[in-house]
Amino acid sequence: MRTPKLVATDLDGTLVRADGSVSDFTRGVLVKLEEIGVPVIFVTGRPLRWTRELFEHIGSVGLAIVSNGALVWDVAADQPRLTRLIEPTLTAEVAAVLKSNLPGLSFATESLEGWSCEPAFAAHMADAKRPARRSAPIEELADEPLIKLLARRHDHDDADELLAAASAVVGDRVNVTHSSFPLLEMSAPGVTKASTLELVCTELGISASEVIAFGDMPNDLPMLTWAGTSYAMADAHPSVVSCASHLAPGHEDDGVARVLAGVFGL
Q1: Cα(110)–Cα(133) distance, rounded to whole angstroms?
Q2: Tens digits of per-residue pLDDT, 155-196?
Q3: What integer best gives the mean pLDDT of the chain?
Q4: Residue among 80, 25, 46 at smallest CA distance from 259
Q5: Which of 21, 25, 69, 16 is nearest to 44 (CA)?
Q6: Residue 12 and residue 32: Cα distance in Å, rounded?
Q7: Pairwise CA distance, residues 162 & 105, whole Å
Q8: DSSP element (H, E) containing 98
Q9: CA torsion, ordered 89, 137, 124, 52, to nearest 10 deg
Q10: Among residues 184, 187, 243, 63, which one has the least CA distance to residue 233?
């Protein structure tokens, strides 16, 4: 394997441990990569507010790809470098189609200003201390460009089944995926971790063949397919294991850092 020029890694279930921490070993590997001039790009489904807590680990490239590719954040400038948004008319159309075909869904939205939700939407525990900016029916929330449209049905506990059902009815209007539990994550057409990572790499003069990527969930599939070298975590979703060209140890065992230490001789 040719030595990669850039590392692209998912966060939850991949680089960070179950408690959200980064181990001393992983932290040390990230520092060593920075010292030898290899940029590490975090490519996550997390919204910006959940990713900020890991910005201390971002090297000199200073960029994070968040919300499944809908936003590239310039950490040093503390401002967006690139936004790829869902327009209001499309949000309204997709929500209406989903409501008609999958009764019982409740919706939430992510915008640059924060998150909003319908009254019935159960917030993630990570947002327990971050109240929704707005609480209203999706028809009212769909009045601004969105980073992501989210939907869940609280009596449905199979994420893959929910994703398949939603994809069948929305088609290519939006990109639909999930990142573990049964929460639909929808981005503008063509917006994936891979398509945005490609834009960033082009700006840096790095080709897909020079990228090593790590992931564990269906929202990582486009990135792992695009990158020249791809690793699924040992405890990854079955579709990710079958897609990736290599298998890394699990995220609780510092799998990303252990692979990188071997690849780069750290």
Answers
A1: 10
A2: 767 888 999 999 999 999 999 998 877 889 999 999 999 999
A3: 93
A4: 25
A5: 69
A6: 22
A7: 10
A8: helix 88-101
A9: 50
A10: 243
pLDDT tens, 69-105?
A: 999 999 989 999 999 999 999 999 999 999 999 999 9
Is residue 147 helix, strand or coil?
Answer: coil
Reduced to 3 states (helix: H, G, I; strand: E, B; else coil), residue 263 is helix
Amino acid code (one letter) for 57: H
The amino acid that residue 39 corresponds to is P
Q: How far apart are CA 69 and CA 94, in angstroms?
A: 19
Q: Which helix (H) or strand (E) holds 193?
A: helix 193-204
CB 8 within 8 A of CB 210: no
How many Å apart are CA 146 and CA 95, to the nearest integer? 13
3-state secondary structure of 120: coil
User: Residue 12 has which token pair?
Assistant: 């939850």
CB 223 within 8 A of CB 231: no
Q: Which residues pair with 110 in a beta bridge?
A: 115, 148
Q: Per the confidence metrics, is the pTM higher than 0.85? A: yes
**H/E run at residue 233:** strand 229-233
